[in-house]
Amino acid sequence: MTKNVRVRFAPSPTGPLHIGGVRTALFNYLFAKKHNGTFVLRIEDTDQNRYVEGAEQYIIDALNWCGLEFDEGPQIPSSEGMTKESYRQSERKHLYKGYAEELIASGNAYYAFDTSETLDFHRKDHEAKGKTFIYNWHNRLKLSNSLSLSADEVQAKLEAGDDYVIRFKSPQDETLHLQDIIRGDIKIDTNILDDKVLFKSDGMPTYHLANIVDDHLMDISHVIRGEEWLPSLALHYQLYKAFGWESPEFAHLPLILKPTGKGKLSKRDGDKLGFPVFPLQWTDPKTGDVSRGYKEDGYFPEAMVNFLAFLGWNPGTEQEIFTLDELIEAFDLKKVHKSGARFDPDKIKWFNHHYMQEQDNDVLAKAFKSAHPELEPIDVNYISLVVGLIKPRATFVSDFWELSSFFFAAPKTFVEKAAKKAWKDDTDAIMKEFVSVINNIEAESVEHLQTVVKEWITNKGIGFGKVMQPLRLALVGDLKGPDLFQIMFMIGRDATVRRIELAIDSI
């Protein structure tokens, strides 16, 4: 790749960042780093009516949590004199009007003074006739704009302060051949395109104009964005041509689909099926409603990144576990699929379970302890040893208590089904004798304890199940848990004896 790679992730601060947006940011980040390029964060806040307080910081926090640190953005200006405000479109609005007027001067755009009532009338009239109203070549000379009005009439309206928009003048009877890295050659008949609004009389550009101007001024080489922007591709290509600018290369990522595989994934799907669709928890500043986040639900950022990378991309190998550096090395836009990617909530749990095994036990122990006040008096080093034994069965830190409570306190009850299976008529006598054996063991290690116990069972000539099953029931309260000798060694001889005696008395 000969040109310097510069990509941008350009979300709107209208609420929390959907995981589809995180996937878009991830693919931009991977592409930039693969080609030693620059990853830019730009906040597209031209629609001030939809602006939500706190959303911009949420976006930044979400990217940072995922490890997708941007090279330039609102908090990290570039080295070329741009300020942090330069990455917010609302702070750059003084730039856009001049570019809109340049398009008017070149004949590629025009003023339109149609009122909302007039446009609404035309829409309803077309609907009544079974048609769709499109503002373009076939009717623009019949409407109120600078193509149908005289220069003096246009000037008079502008001087009078009449509301207006600036529309792009779509060509007639042309076929556009557009290139997309993922989708290849795309043909568009210009006769079906409408004359999109580029600028409004309130001084704010629409997304279409602002994003083209910003991409040009920021030297963006590749625009990697969601499939939902594919219908805008024709206009954006034409804008570059109208300005006489070199167009960036485009790549439109596939949609993230519902778990059923039909339709785009939404927050409602997550609420219905019990999984988050946002990276971090979000509290709506107006309603106070709280939406779940993957971080707060106990997912590791590595799991989220690894999972999202496979939503629409595949390395072409059997490998599924990738570090961020490995993803950078393997990533290729040409291996991104065209078709939608089904969201599988069980698959991200699978990734989380894997990354759980790679977490430092001491770090997990601190998180476990902070979540359970009853562990406050327990030495964190002991908790860390427990975590090392149970985490192979855990997907989240929130699973730890159920998997390990018996390491910290004797079971208060015994599962009835397990008790019927493990405790037979001769169990009381066997376990009382076993207590006397335990009382005489000065175990130096788990292995020593295991050797002594197994020798006793062998010498007694009874099946291992007759001892080990009721022993597990006594220590755990159920027939589950890690290695029994690990449990016995960890809780100590005295606690082991007390629990066996409690089981004898209770069952």
UniProtKB/TrEMBL annotation:
EC top class, as a word: ligase
Q: Where is this motif: 'KMSKS' region?
A: 264-268
Task: Please give the SUPFAM superfamilies that the UniProt record associates with this protein.
Answer: An anticodon-binding domain of class I aminoacyl-tRNA synthetases, Nucleotidylyl transferase
**Main subcellular location:** cytoplasm
Short sequence motif named 'HIGH' region, residue ranges:
11-21
Chain positions recorded as ATP binding sites: 267
Domain Glutamyl/glutaminyl-tRNA synthetase class Ib catalytic: from-to ranges = 4-350
**Compartment(s) of residence:** Cytoplasm
Q: Which UniProt keywords apply?
A: Aminoacyl-tRNA synthetase, ATP-binding, Cytoplasm, Ligase, Nucleotide-binding, Protein biosynthesis
Give the Enzyme Commission number: 6.1.1.17
What is the purpose of this protein? Catalyzes the attachment of glutamate to tRNA(Glu) in a two-step reaction: glutamate is first activated by ATP to form Glu-AMP and then transferred to the acceptor end of tRNA(Glu).
NCBIfam families for this protein: gltX_bact
Subunit structure, per the record? Monomer.
What protein name is recorded for this chain? Glutamate--tRNA ligase
Supply the source organism for this entry: Algibacter agarivorans
